[in-house]
Specification:
It is a single chain. The chain contains 3 helices and no strands. With about 120 residues, it is an all-alpha fold.
Length: about 120
């Protein structure tokens, strides 16, 4: 086994980079909430990783192979999780996150004009 400084540095950095991704993966698996992730970023990260694989796997086997394989797996997993657990988008023009979007009437009953069905009477 090669223990030259570049291989040792590559091994240590691979462990650090992989460890930095684990909280994100853990939270995604635990909550299934990936609403804060950009689908464009997830897609581009996967495309970039696939293209970069041509270069990485042309290099001699080493820590970079392990790190890149980890990135391939985790970015693919995050994209799959995003697609599987995304919330459906409301029809155009409707904002379902706004509290008023769930009400058919936007005024409390006591503020309805007299004679309005369900409103205050005079």
């Amino acid at each position: 086994m090669d223990l030259s400084p570049p291989v040792v540095a590559g091994s240590i950095s691979s462990i650090v980079f992989a460890a930095s991704v684990m909280p994100m993966l853990t939270k995604a698996v635990r909550t299934r909430d990936l609403s804060s992730y950009s689908p464009g970023n997830l897609l581009l990260a996967n495309v970039g990783n696939l293209v970069h694989s041509v270069y990485i796997f042309s290099l001699p086997a080493g820590p970079i192979w392990a790190l890149h394989s980890f990135y391939l797996i985790t970015t693919g997993f995050m994209l799959a999780m995003y697609l599987r657990h995304r919330k459906p988008t409301p029809p155009e023009g409707q904002d379902h996150d706004h509290p008023a979007a769930h009400r058919t009437d936007h005024r409390p009953e006591e503020l309805q004009p007299a004679g309005y069905p369900g409103g205050a009477s005079t």
